[in-house]
Write a structure and sequence with these properties.
This protein is α/β, with parallel strands linked by helices. Helices cover about 35% and strands about 30% of the residues. Bound molecules: S-adenosylmethionine. S-adenosylmethionine (SAM) binds next to loops.
Length: about 230
Amino acid sequence: MSDAFEIHAEAYAEKSSTSIHNALYERPALVALLPELLGKDVLDLGCGSGTLIGELLNKGANVTGMDLSAGLIEIARRKFGEKATFHIADLKEDFEFLNGKTFDIIVSSLALHYVEDWNSLFGKIRTHLRDDGYVVFSTHHPSASRTWFDLTNYFERKLVHDVWSIGGQKVIVSNYHRSLTEMFEAFAVNGLFVESLLEPKPLEKAKEISEDTYHRLTNREHFILFRVRVRQ
Ligand SMILES: C[S@@+](CC[C@H](N)C(=O)[O-])C[C@H]1O[C@@H](n2cnc3c(N)ncnc32)[C@H](O)[C@@H]1O
């Protein structure tokens, strides 16, 4: 994990709940891809401070969240208390914290690109997903990340380093660029397939906050979202 999330937990929690990219672009798109949640067991991978968890609880899900940042999990616990279960854990390690539990829906909002090995990651996801379950997640659009990081080889997986402004401070956040082909291979080797793919557009409301950002996100690829299922 980039230390940025841990060191700037409070400021990142604020940014994630209010910024155009999260609140008016990525999160509504992810929610639109979710199936019925009432009474469903849902796992949120890289849940951070739980910006998605309020929506999941409101729609009647039983929610488990996990994140590597103790600071962000503390904020999530403060917000939701006993209403959801939280674990501090690493996506790169075995999911022992789940004690073998399986889920109807596994969600992840902009967290999986911090993990290099998606074959292994989606293997663990499959193990904890019920046969009729759904994986709904967002990540960087690889065509956008090729441009952001000026990569000469789109197809090569690469650790890239972004500079963000969090709480008025510049911080470096590192993540992996990978091609669509590599993403689909990780699904396929684990018996998963893509049921829906979404290249989102921002909500109209974003225009009132920043016309520039609204137009950029309306005209160009930025994030990409998937709804993945188990091949029967
Ligand atoms: C961009 S933030 C998104 C947080 C949250 N999903 C949201 O939408 O507000 C990425 C999250 O991934 C978490 N993360 C990064 N690497 C991780 C890892 N190896 N294991 C677990 N969580 C990780 C970070 O701590 C951070 O909370």
